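Handout, section B. The chain below has 139 residues.
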Amino acid sequence: MTSMDWPSLRLDHLRRLAAWSALLAAVAASAWLALAPVYHVEGTTLTADGTPTRSVSTATLQEVNGSRIYVLLLAPILLAALPLIFGRRRFATLAAGIGAGLLVIFAILGSASIGGAYVPAAAFALLAAALARASHPAT
């Protein structure tokens, strides 16, 4: 190995670390959203004698939206996995950029509901895409 190989090797390791971090962040966000009770409902009713009764209930995304939510929760995982799927192939830089861009759009469009959970994954994906570009410059 020559001394010129070291910077590109180091960038490649950082790129892979960022890509794996994006994937793990997306998996963690999807798992949390799939399993945690993200809906919280409180209500107060009056009994016949006028006494207020307070009720509190929680529900998961699947309980409220059905099983189709799993398709939506799988999308960010697949987008974060694109750079790892393509690895060192010809379109790796393009795949990293597309995956990061779509993950950022997903986080922004879903920011009123589940999108915020994917901000860390989007940030790591952007870093992986930038490092992919830096470690594989256009010839």
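Note. The chain is about 65% helix and 10% strand. Compare this with the example in section A.
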